[in-house]
Design goal:
The protein is an alpha+beta fold. It has a domain of about 35 residues. Helix content is about 30%, strand content about 20%. The chain has a two-stranded antiparallel sheet with strand order 1-2.
């Protein structure tokens, strides 16, 4: 998809619709992984589920 979207979590591709519009193809698993990571970061928990305090 080019350098702009390369490495962007949650987007795995794009397609051109019959009307000429472009639609992004979502990576649902990647979106949930990103959401989980962000939620745990706000709570002070590491991605693996271990507390960052010790």
């Amino acid at each position: 998809m080019g350098q702009i979207f390369q490495g962007l979590e949650g987007i795995c591709g794009a397609t051109v619709l019959g009307c000429g519009d472009i639609a992004l193809i979502l990576d649902i698993h990647g979106l949930f992984r990103l959401l989980t990571y962000q939620s745990q970061s706000r709570l002070g928990v590491s991605y693996q589920g271990e507390s960052q305090d010790g």
